[in-house]
Known about the structure:
CATH class of the largest domain: Alpha Beta
Strand order of the largest sheet: 2-4-5-7-6
CATH architecture of the largest domain: 2-Layer Sandwich
Strand content: 5-15%
Structural class: alpha+beta
Largest sheet: 5 strands, mixed
Radius of gyration: 39 Å
Distance between the termini: 71 Å
Number of domains: 3
Helix content: 55-70%
Number of strands: 7
Number of helices: 8
Shape: elongated
Amino acid sequence: MHIPKQYRKIIFANITALHLILGILWITGFLLSPAKWYITLIICLVTSMVCSLIFAEYTWKKIVLPDKQTGPADNDRQNALEYMKAKENEIQQLKKLENYRKEFLGNVAHELKTPLTSIQGQILTLLDGGIYDDNININYLQRSAFNIDRMISVVNDLDEISKLEYDRYQLKMENFNISTLIDEVSDTLEVKANKLGIKIITDFNPDQTYMVNADKDNIRKVLVNLIDNAIKYNDKENGEVRIQIADNDNTYQITIADNGIGIDNQYLPRIFERFFRVDKDRSRKTGGSGLGLAIVKHVIDAHSQTLNVQSTPGLGSAFSFTLQKGK
Length: 327
């Protein structure tokens, strides 16, 4: 049996004290009644047995039993299991990050390679004499311009995300009326919405002031991305985008809802990932970089606020985020 070092001194001290007490008792009894020394000896022996039993029980409960239950070997085994579990989780996390890195690099390469290939083909065609063909020259130049804009959009969005992820990036917090900003963004996107037959509805009291404390420029980007997506992914004949503001004690909740194509539940956990698209062909045709929702998430996270999405295929989607109230 292994007895920890700190308990050895306790055991030795108790045994020594027991012998001293017994010796004192016997000597005292002998001096008081020398003729009855055997009675004193019997009393000392009985006292010794009782004390030994008490001390044995104490030793068993306080030292032996705990040592058996959680001895050094058990502790070492438990520590080893915890270490292995921690390392296994670390390895799984590293594998996940490695897969994410590979997927991200593949997506970046694809997003830039596709428009570059198109531009190359169009420019070579024009250089081979197509520039003098009125049937294709303007069309090819327009296609090249579209692909250039697409690449610029990807690069700008990547630059924006890298800034938001930078630890020392400082948000320019200010107090402003969120309803005024929503109206400005809605007016900007109204022409695009009208061309697609989509109606933008601001479903809040226009006479009420909704002051928030946030980075106005970044919140503008959030609204542009969410409202633009609601317009792009709405193919209903009477399509609409509805914007609401709800009062939640210390925050305002802004919701952008549409009655468009919706998102299947299996894709919802990934929609805020970089370059993730539910409908890749549709997104690329409309000029999307695949980074809009990733930017939205980074901006809201930087504000330490919440971002939620609810969607039903065929019925539409609703994206909502909160902002701290201002003064």
